[in-house]
Structure formats: structure tokens, C-alpha cells
Description:
The complex is a heterodimer. Chain A is an all-alpha fold. In chain A, 71% of the residues lie in helices and 0% in strands.
Amino acid sequence: MPAATGQLSEVTPSGRLGAGPRRPLSVAERLGAVVAHHLTVYRRTWKGSIIGRFLSPLFFLLSMGLGLGTLVDDSAGGVDGIPYLQYVVPGIVAVQAMWLAFGESTYAVFGYIRWNQMYAAMLATPLRVTEVLGGHLTVIAFHLGVATTIFIAVAALFGSFTSWWVLLAVPVGVLTGMAFAAPTFALAATLESDNGFSLLYRFVVTPLMLFSGIFFPIDQLPLLLQPVAWVTPLWHGVELCRDAATGTPPGWAGLGHLAVLVLYIGVGWLLAHRAFRKRLVS
Amino acid sequence: MSEDVLLRARGLTKRFGDFTAVDGIDVEVRRGEAFGFLGPNGAGKSSTMRMVGCVSPVTEGELRILGMDPASDGPAIRARLGVCPQRDILDEDLTVEENLWVYGRFFGLTRHEVRERADDLLEFAQLTDRRHDRVEPLSGGMKRRLTIARSLMNTPEVLLLDEPTTGLDPQARHVLWDRLFRLKREGVTLIVTTHYMDEAEQLCDRLVVMDHGRIVAEGSPRALIAEHSTREVLELRFDPDEQERHVDAVSGVGERLEVLPDRLLVYADDGDTALAEVHARGVEPLSSLVRRSSLEDVFLHLTGRTLVD
């Protein structure tokens, strides 16, 4: 059988084989193809991601929530009147989303651009930058949703939450993660070498974890450091998770937190799109 | 524009800032042809290929592929192209057949079509018995064939091959050339870049020689050789320190003399006669060789430089 011309499929042909114009793909088909690619790869590599995704947050729950928590509860009666476990675990929900987002959008994206050039291979097909970028971000949102759900389910077994509203922490976890992933995509597409990522982890990821109101309220921070929490996404995610976990209506502050997360995602998307175009289709 | 002209470029130009990678070239490729861009690294071949592949906007000039404009119809054009990049861009974590499957989905093929095409192409690429293996440990030749197989998933009408055999051993190159001949016989138009003259001679019906972003010659390999070189070439090697002393004595033999760092090339229609004359002039080279002219000689004549430094 001729390899190049092949035989058209008899079972509902796609109209995308053989000579002449091909039937265009819908946006959903394009995104679906990119998502399918990433999930196929993940099916081969998921084992390596287990420790970072599930065990690290669990270790924090055990050491901070239960270990340190006993001490805090005995000496100070919890934080703002709630037991330390229930105070800290919603924060860990948000921080595990941030970790996952950085894990999936630094070296992974840089590698797709520089090392195995997967994005270039996709762009040689009818796919466009919007779908290559959008598909990859969609997959990360999916991972964030799954990982956050699993962590919340496990944490609930330890009595970390007092309200069913905690289910809302799943979309909040997704938004928090995406608020980091989108701008990091832009960074990964701009960097000339991967050295920048170790600086990112040292000077962004770790300080944010410490100064975003996860382990103690940010009003305990020196005044100069508080704005760091206000202008970065993590604290906003933590606050929303905490409200969800206790079933507290977040009010106007909640809308503000949401707006910051959405703003980071929106601006991050625009920057990433521009950086991808510049790097991949110039 | 004639139905049979698949690619037409007029004054095609690509600039990156101040640097002009492609400097106003005119090219026409017809359906069913194997067309080559021959030139050294940095001649502008890959930049041209990226524009033809609709992943690099045209700076200036006109480019039509399958009668369409890449600026407005990129996805529609790419749906009918196969692109085989210089480096094998494969998912090393996936198996051989998974690489084909996910790629087929990018073109919107159905699950059934993807499986069917993958089966055919694994056969074509002689990889059927490796289909369940991961890609990473495959040999260079196998990865190259898989990359080509993948670029054929959408039954392309035009296959773009950027340096298809660079980095392969001689046997793997011949296997690959054989596969490309088959494609050509099935009617696929091939557009190839290469800096190997033997590859250009083997594969291309017609080619352009590029240098510094410009086209310096165009024609079939045979016509180019006839036009820009002699039938035979006599190569003379001397002790490197003494070569210079013999240049004057040898000049005038044959039609033309090229002085390379390590040898003298005497261009003559009859190499043996030329060698006899060299001996008659009392010049005794360390070694001598009479060979047929190649595209390398064409390039040397046109640019004063060799293709592969």
C-alpha cells in the first residue's frame, strides 16, 4: 500500500487526508489534540510526579498541622481562635497548587521550547500558538484540579476542615496555580538558559511560601514585607481557601482576592502568548 | 498561477533585525518534483524552509504555497504539508507508535485513521517490529525514519526535509534516500535542504545553490555541473609547505585551477591528459586523483569556497 497517499478510512473519514484542501479543525479539536498529547506523555511519566504532588503537602500537614499545631494550640489556643491544623491546612492547599504550577511550567516549558522542541513540532501542523499554549495550560489546570481534590480528601481525614464549603477550595486551588503558571510560561519562553529557574525557586517560591499567611497571619509580618503578600497571588489564594474551609462568606475582600488571581492569569496569558510567538514563530 | 506550481516565491526576503537571512530569492517548485536548496550552513536555507513551512513570517516579497498565502492561510497550508525538521523532534518518553498517534491527532485525524496511517507508515519506515519500544534508545537512523514517518501522517502533498541525512552514517543515509525515492514515485513533492553535494545529486531533479541568502545558480545537478565545471577534475596533493611553489607551474593546465589549502584542483575535460601535462612540466605531486566533477566544484567555482568547512 502506498505510504504517502494511503487509503482513506471507510469509517466516517475526517476529510483531512488525501490531495486537495482539508477540512479545517474546530478550536475544540485543536485544543483536544494538544491536551491528548500531554496526557499521553503524563501516562508514561506520572510516577515521578507523585512525591512532589502528594507527599510533600502531606508531610507539611503532618509536621506543621499536627506536630507544630499541638504546640501552638497548647500555648496560644490556636490562631484567631481556630485550632492550628484547621488554620494551616487551607494554606497548604494553596501552596501545593503553587508548587505544582511551578513544577509544570518552568523546566517543562523550557524543555518543550529548547530541548525536545515539541511546541515547534506542534506548530508545523495546523495548530496555532493560541492552541499550543492554551492546550498546555488547560492540562495544568486539570492537574491542579485533580491534585487539589486528592489533597483536600486526604486532609479531610485528619479533620482539617469544618465545612463542606471546602469543596470550593478546588477551583480556588486551580486559580491560584494558574496565576503562577501563566506568567511562568512567559518567563520560560523568554529565558535564554534554565539557570533563571533556580533563582526563581530561591527568591520567589520559598519566600512566598513563608510570607503569604500560610503558617501565621500576615499582620505578624514586618510592615515592609506585608505588601509582598498583597501584590502576589499566593496570599489571595490562601485567604480564599481558608474562608472556604471554614465556610466563612468572603465578602468584598473575597472578590478582591479573586480579581487579583484572575488578573495574574489574564496578564500572564498575554505575556506568554507574546513570548511564545516571539520564540516559536519569528 | 498554474495548478502545477506548488511553491512560488518572488523576491522572498527574511530579515532578523539588521541581519538579512534570505535576500530576495525567486523560486518555483512544481508538483512531483524533488527540489533542493544547496548551500553551506548559514546560507539561508533553513530560514527559507521555515517561511515555506508557515512558521516564520515573510519580511518582504511574495510567497505562495499550494496557491495560498502563509500570512493568512497558515493552518490550511500546514494541513497539506509534511515537515521533517533538521533535529529529530520526538517524544522520547513515548513509544514509536504513540509518537505517530499523538501527531496524527494534531491534524484532526480520527482515531481509526490515526491507527491505520501509523500501521502503514511503520511498515514504510521499517519500524514495525519496534513499534512498542520507547523512542529514546533507537539509533539515529531509526529516529530519522520515525520523524519522516510522522511527517507523513497527514498524507502531505509536499514534504519539507531540512538536512535529512546530517549526522547519519553512510548506510543509514542510503536507506533513507531509498525511502525518499519511494515517496517521490508516489507523487509526493520533495523540498530538501542540504549541504551535502552527493545528497543533492542523489535526490534532486532541480536545485538552487544558495550563498549569503542569495541564489547563485539554478538547474538540474547535471546542467549545473556542465555549465559551471568541467567534465573531470584532477586533484593534486603536495607537501603542504611546498604546494605554493607548484601553483605557477601547474597553472595553464586544463581550463581552470583552484587552489585549496590542502590541494590543487585542475579542471579539465580529460583528467588523464591534464595529469600527463603536469608530469611533462616536471611537477611531481605526492598523489593525484582524477574524478568526475560534482556540485562541490560548482559551488567552489561560484563562491570561491567549499561547502563543508
